[in-house]
Write a structure and sequence with these properties.
247 residues, Rossmann fold, alpha/beta, six-stranded parallel β-sheet
Length: 247
C-alpha cells in the first residue's frame, strides 16, 4: 500500500496567501460524538458561527468518507459545511485533506484505493494548517475509537497533539451509557474534556428533561449548550457558553 501523497499540497499550503495567524497560541478543539450520526457537523457549524463573531476560526475535517464527485473533485457535504462556516479564504482541500467517495470506515476506504492512513500522515497535514487562525475546530469521524488502520485510532491523533475535546451527545435512547463510556475513555486517555453539547435529534427523545438532568449531575465537565434539530444561528442569540474556549 502507498501512503497518501502530501508534498504537492504541502507546497500549496506553504505558498498560500491565507495564513492569518502565526502565533503558537492557536486554540484547537477536537469535536467527537457519542456515536455516528449524532450531529457533530451540525454542532461544529453552529460553534464556528458563534466563535467567528469573536475570533477568526476554521473548521477542519482531516478524514471524510462519503463524497460526491464534482467538477472540482470529491466533495464531502460535512466538510463543505465546515468550509462555508469558517473564516473566509480557505480552500476545500485545506479543510478536508483526505476524502473518499465510499461512505464506509475510512481505513477500509483507504485500503480499497491501495492507500494507508497513519497518525504520522495526519500530523503532517495538521502541522500545515493549525496556525491558519487563532481558533480551530477539528471534527472527527464516527465515535471516539475510530480505526484509521489495523493498529491506530483517530483518538491517537488527538493524544499525540494533546487536543482538548468537546463531546457532542446525541440525545436519544442509549445516550446515557454511550456518553458516560465515551467520557470515561477520553479521561483514561489523559485528555482534557473542555465540555459537552446536548444535541436534540430529529426524533424527539422520551423524557428528554430527565435524561438531560441525569447527564448534568453525572458529568463534571461543563455543558456548553443545548441545540435543537435544524436550529439556526442568530448573532444576537448565542447558543453556547464560550468563555472557556476563548480564555
Amino acid at each position: 500500500m502507498k501512503s497518501i501523497e502530501l508534498n504537492k499540497v504541502y507546497q500549496r499550503l506553504i505558498k498560500s496567501p491565507i495564513v492569518f495567524w502565526k502565533s503558537n497560541m492557536t486554540k484547537s478543539y477536537f469535536i467527537t460524538g457519542t456515536d455516528t450520526d449524532v450531529g457533530k457537523t451540525f454542532v461544529t457549524e453552529l460553534l464556528l458561527k458563534q466563535l467567528n463573531l469573536h475570533q477568526p476560526t476554521i473548521g477542519y475535517k482531516p478524514i471524510a468518507a462519503g463524497a460526491e464527485m464534482t467538477e472540482d473533485g470529491l466533495r464531502n457535504s460535512d466538510a463543505l459545511i465546515l468550509q462555508q462556516s469558517s473564516v473566509s479564504g480557505i480552500d476545500y482541500s485545506t479543510i478536508n485533506p483526505i476524502c473518499y467517495q465510499e461512505a464506509i470506515a475510512p481505513h477500509i476506504a483507504a485500503a480499497l484505493h491501495n492507500e494507508s492512513l497513519s497518525i504520522e500522515a495526519l500530523s503532517q497535514w495538521w502541522h500545515k494548517v493549525q496556525h491558519l487562525s487563532p481558533v480551530a475546530l477539528i471534527e472527527g469521524a464516527g465515535g471516539w475509537r475510530l480505526p484509521i488502520n489495523d493498529h491506530e485510532f483517530l483518538s491517537d491523533f488527538v493524544k499525540a497533539h494533546q487536543l482538548e475535546v468537546i463531546v457532542v451527545v446525541g440525545m436519544k435512547l442509549g445516550c446515557l451509557n454511550h456518553t458516560l463510556l465515551t467520557l470515561e475513555t477520553i479521561r483514561q486517555d489523559g485528555l482534557v474534556i473542555k465540555g459537552w453539547v446536548a444535541n436534540q435529534l430529529d426524533l424527539p427523545m422520551s423524557n428528554y428533561d430527565e435524561n438531560l438532568a441525569y447527564l448534568k449531575q453525572s458529568i463534571t465537565e461543563p455543558l456548553l449548550g443545548e441545540v435543537k434539530a435544524h436550529q439556526t444561528f442568530s448573532p444576537d442569540q448565542p447558543l453556547f457558553e464560550l468563555d472557556g474556549l476563548l480564555d
